[in-house]
Amino acid sequence: MTAASLVNQIQSSARKTPEAGTSAADIQRAWEDIQVCIDRLNDMFLLRKHSLDNKPSHGESDQYWSEKLGNLQIFAEMALKPESRESYGLPQIEENISHFGYLVERMARGNLPA
User: Fold this and answer.
1) pLDDT score at 114
2) In angstroms, rounded to a whole number, what is the distance separating the alpha carbons of residues 31 and 96?
3) How large is the C-alpha radius of gyration of the chain?
4) Is the model more confident about 104 or about 60?
5) Residue 97 · residue 79 · CB < 8 Å
6) Which member of 5, 6, 63, 110 has the lowest number of beta carbons within 10 Å of its beta carbon?
7) Is residue 3 a contact partner of residue 100, using CB atoms and an 8 Å limit?
């Protein structure tokens, strides 16, 4: 799978909200799918760090990566678990998933074609 397809899967799974009428079991499966995608994206970034011709730039530190990937995960969780939303509404959550998904996809992919 590509980084873009993993981010797309996260976005799709995060739309399986209680407001969409999704059952608790389906929400749990969606969360498990998101976790798998997060793990794969992290693996991609780690592999990229050890690549000879596609290393992350200095601006793409481990800390920056962890923050962006963590934020993507947090907002995906907020979409599925209303009790974790704080003051965020679904439109804001979806916007943040899209934003952090874009950043994570770019960093996991590096200079490889999408």
Assistant:
1) 60
2) 17
3) 14
4) 104
5) yes
6) 63
7) no
